[in-house]
Amino acid sequence: MEVLPDAVRVSLAGEFDLLTEQDLTTWLAGAIESHPGRAVEVDMHEVTFLDSSGIRVLLGAHGLAVRHGGSFRLTRASGMVREVLDIVDMYAFLSGENADDEARPPAA
């Protein structure tokens, strides 16, 4: 975790699935709760795999950040991770690229 003047950056690496769900939840919640009201940026550049468990954690962290008065956004997602997030229509929401939408996930 890196505390920047305008944000807290969490750089993730590896695979995020059911086996790592609790660790990912703990890392992201820790970053959010230790810096309430701050923007949290999650650098996904070195994430090589993401399944529905990982997506669920990212959505939960987004909600937690908002409840703590901050914001949450993914950066540098690429490859298979970006494709998965696009397929489930979550990339734009979690990356903040849909700035005109309200702070809620798209309808299923």
How would you portray this structure in words?
The protein is α/β, with parallel strands linked by helices and 108 residues long. Helix content is 40%, strand content 27%. It contains 4 helices and 4 strands, in the order E-E-H-E-H-E-H-H. It has a 4-stranded mixed sheet with strand order 1-2-3-4. Strand 3, helix 2 and strand 4 form a beta-alpha-beta unit. Helix 1 runs parallel beside helix 2. It starts with a strand and ends in a 13-residue tail after the last helix. 25% of the residues are buried. About 6% of the residues have low confidence.
**In angstroms, what is the radius of gyration?**
13 Å
Element pattern in H and E: EEHEHEHH
Shape: globular
Measured by DSSP, the beta-strand proportion falls in 25-35%
Overall residue-averaged pLDDT value: 90
Major β-sheet strand ordering:
1-2-3-4
Tally of DSSP helical segments:
4
Identify the quaternary structure here. Answer: single chain
> Largest beta sheet, briefly?
4 strands, mixed
Helicity, as a percent range: 25-40%
Structural class: alpha/beta
Distance between the termini: 32 Å
The low-confidence parts are 99-104
The total of beta strands comes to 4
